[in-house]
Amino acid sequence: MRTHFCGLVDEALIGQTVTLCGWADVARDLGGLCFIDLRDHEGIVQIVAEPDAATAGNAEVIAAAAAVGYEDCLRITGVVRARHAVNDKIRTGKVEVVATKIELLNKAEPLPFHAHENPGEDIRLKYRYLDLRTPAMQRKMRTRTRLVSALRHYLDARGFQDIETPILTKATPEGARDFLVPARMHPGEFYALPQSPQLFKQILMMAGFDRYYQIARCFRDEALRADRQLEFTQLDMEFAWVAERDVQDLTEDMIRHVFREVMDVELAAQFPRMTYAEAMRRYGSDKPDLRIALEFVDVAELVKGCEFKVFTDAADDADGRVVALRIPGGASLSRKQIDEYAAHAAKYGAKGVAYVKLDEAGAINSPIAKFFSEDAFKALLEAIGLQNGDIAFFGAGKYKTVSDFMGALRLKAGKDFNLVADGWAPLWVTDFPMFEWDEEEGRYVALHHPFTAPAVDSIEDLRANAKTAVSRGYDMVLNGNEIGGGSIRIHNSAMQSAVFELLGIGAEEAAGKFGFLLDALKYGAPPHGGIAFGIDRIAALMAGSESIRDVIAFPKTTTAQCLMTDAPSPIPDAQLAEVHVQVRPKA
Amino acid sequence: MRTHFCGLVDEALIGQTVTLCGWADVARDLGGLCFIDLRDHEGIVQIVAEPDAATAGNAEVIAAAAAVGYEDCLRITGVVRARHAVNDKIRTGKVEVVATKIELLNKAEPLPFHAHENPGEDIRLKYRYLDLRTPAMQRKMRTRTRLVSALRHYLDARGFQDIETPILTKATPEGARDFLVPARMHPGEFYALPQSPQLFKQILMMAGFDRYYQIARCFRDEALRADRQLEFTQLDMEFAWVAERDVQDLTEDMIRHVFREVMDVELAAQFPRMTYAEAMRRYGSDKPDLRIALEFVDVAELVKGCEFKVFTDAADDADGRVVALRIPGGASLSRKQIDEYAAHAAKYGAKGVAYVKLDEAGAINSPIAKFFSEDAFKALLEAIGLQNGDIAFFGAGKYKTVSDFMGALRLKAGKDFNLVADGWAPLWVTDFPMFEWDEEEGRYVALHHPFTAPAVDSIEDLRANAKTAVSRGYDMVLNGNEIGGGSIRIHNSAMQSAVFELLGIGAEEAAGKFGFLLDALKYGAPPHGGIAFGIDRIAALMAGSESIRDVIAFPKTTTAQCLMTDAPSPIPDAQLAEVHVQVRPKA
């Protein structure tokens, strides 16, 4: 139907006749002379409908052009010529196409919104096809396509097999909530949608596939926090006969490769490596944003002698922490702004934050100075490295809580004071704790998942040191986002049973939920490990989007709806009867 | 953990020390001298544990080897040497590895079955990981991986964008039964799993993506006939601004490409093309297996004068058909075998089949000869081309029914008489009827789907000629399997509404189910079309498997169960309450 793409018409075509298909981005009728900006997925080219130079004819084409409206679907034939008013902003800006034929393929009704008008997200989602037609969204979606394609080509070239795992599978209530699917052929029974292909990919290693990957859809029926989706996509990978560095080295190289291919960016030749303990100590986060140069200073030893009970209690607590965060130039913060920082910290569990300001003249402003001797306070400020014009915030309390809220303050300060460097800051975080004590449930929960191998050799060792045991898990972090997470897995049936037991999953429950895994581990399971990368998040980062919704063609809202198709929706009772369920009466 | 793959150790490595990981395929202890066949995904290599030539030592290694059992997971270091008894069947057959270290990575318990014992499918599916470890299954699964990879590389190089569409979407009760997913955040409402991404891919064309593909999971809750799965995989494609041949020419070239890449097979440079009418007339099938040279002969005109009412009724019926199928060499069929043919035809709607045998001496044996004059019967046999030693079957009745059952006989005869040629016989079938009259429902149903464009220009034309209207649909057929099906779509809202109406879908119902499509068609939808290929079927054909279960890592049984994970399964009522459903009491 066409000879060229609109966005690729250039000077090399001058004098040639081309046929183009696309949408009318803008159409201007200057009375007997019309301009149309014709747009396809490659870009925009200017079409001119004007009287023929020789005959003064061409009335039919001019009339057709004059009738064109926004988003009409057109096929236009014409001759390419050089343009008087060059537009340097677009590739086609040096040419225009003088129309000899204009066909209206499909008339567009008046649009529900126009992209130029900065419409709200709801209307953009309802008319998603109009939103996706915009060059900005086309570019973002294409970034995702290129990312996925680059990943696949990298892995295909290295002997990884792309293997599909089931979407209709068994409910495994560990972790997030499952989506359930009633089974028509088995009254009263249900399939579940997979939260990840975790167990299937481990089974694939036991099945001899050696190197596996899948761009896999995963499902979690969780409260939709800020930027989550019911279904999301991960690059799921697993390797047989490997240790941590085998997985890390290959995937680090892979991520460098895709940034080079898609973004023309060269990431660090070696990603920094940091233990979980170090990340928490320096940045108060297990996914530190290393673009922000701010670091914590632990000051428990320096505050032990002061008279501020909040500090001394925390300093004397084996599980406590007293930490300072210096913000260069932060002395400009007003009392009100400091309160905002305190409020932000409170969201992450702070009961309060102390601070000290050193104004440009070196005068101290701090509600806690009075609790210190002059020398002790001076020593404290020296340890923090406070300069004239700076502020430092203090947090004191339980180690984890202090780290969390001071980590949140670090991010806020980084943003507020333009301390976020340009570029890309990847790193590996390793040596995570094996377990976390869940106060609410009164039991250990797995920090990664229950199939992660502990970094100990014996079951006895693990049982004796469960609280402090470190796992063989690892995360890849980029600009403060966990973009990948994985581990070496347990490949021994007895060790897997012991971990289930420590997590409060009894032998009977384990057999019911994970019996096939425990079985499979008995028939010569090889050592294996893997990782999964969040495709939506990486694509959003590459596209420069705050929200993953920009890189998902048909996303759902935070209330779990598709505004375009109107899903979910009520279903006739007769149809529910076929699958042996009914809607529950309201309690 | 290893330096080489087992299956790739060859003469180039003689004298070198290698470390291998794998499973013990076979282990033989000859008393102080042990052999282990060590297997990984690349193949098998022979390991020898023997006394050291110089020291007569090596007791530890020999003891470790002697303890090895089937499927133990091992790491073995040793020196490659030439082998005395060369095994030409395997790549590693000229070498063996003399072990200097044997590590037992994971002991295998006694196996539930052994691959050499030809186990039943149920036990293979329960212990799928053991089944998949066998070289035969590894080869089949790798064929699928290579197929998918070759398809992707072909399309990525041609500007197709791989775009994901939702799995949690809206129920659309046209066609097969939907899988339903209760929505936790919307009590009483449900998502449905997509039967295909059909509407989403059309929307993507309206959204300006121009060329789309996806290796997409699709879901149909149908009775599991012979070789169906609840979830299956299709290569889903859509093109904007195209006509039929654009889609067909590119995908034909693509299929040629993947057969070249994966199978080293060169398919026909131009696939034969055949209308639906011609395919039914010559082969009684819309997916004829062209490897079988047998063709129908229509004989209505030649039987009009006979006294066999079954023939004359059909011959006089405008919607009737009398057809003969000659089977060379078929005179050898016994009375009992002929009855089996009749029974086979009956499954496809035959009330009976007539036949005529011509024995090697030229004697006629036919229950219907008596209804004909000698001359008329001779003329009939001549028209059929019956030779000595042949049989011909006759079918008479309604056109469609006769075509169906005689088509089934053609396939059976092809198989029984070894008339299926080797190799690959692809073709395009085109010009399908737009509608089929459904006697049961008393309305038209779409032969492809309701979004297929009719091959007419106006709505009036379509309404006036609905019964005979031809669609712009097309199928790619390979060796008697429909491996791909597609069409040019309706891109005009009024035409789409008219087709819905002809299918008995009223304006209100259409707005409820397909409102977003009807809307989208109003805002400048471009002409578009596409196709979908059945990946499971193509992979099975390439792998030489009768069943698609051989090329799906974790398939379900014909009773819709996963025997490995034991899905589906009962769910606690409290969990059902969270999603606002309950199991329905038995009626």
UniProtKB/TrEMBL annotation, chains A, B:
Please list where the region (Aspartate) is annotated: 198-201
Q: Which domain of life, per UniProt?
A: Bacteria
Q: Which HAMAP family match?
A: Asp_tRNA_synth_type1
Subunit organization: Homodimer.
Main localisation, per the record?
cytoplasm
Q: Which UniProt keywords apply?
A: Aminoacyl-tRNA synthetase, ATP-binding, Cytoplasm, Ligase, Nucleotide-binding, Protein biosynthesis
One Gene Ontology cellular component term attached to this UniProt record is:
cytoplasm
- EC number(s) stated in the UniProt entry for this protein: 6.1.1.12
Q: Which gene encodes it?
A: aspS
Q: Which organism is it from?
A: Lysobacter daejeonensis GH1-9
Q: Which GO terms describe its molecular function?
A: aspartate-tRNA ligase activity; ATP binding; nucleic acid binding
Kindly give the NCBIfam families that the UniProt entry links to this protein: aspS_bact, PRK00476.1
Q: What is this protein called?
A: Aspartate--tRNA ligase
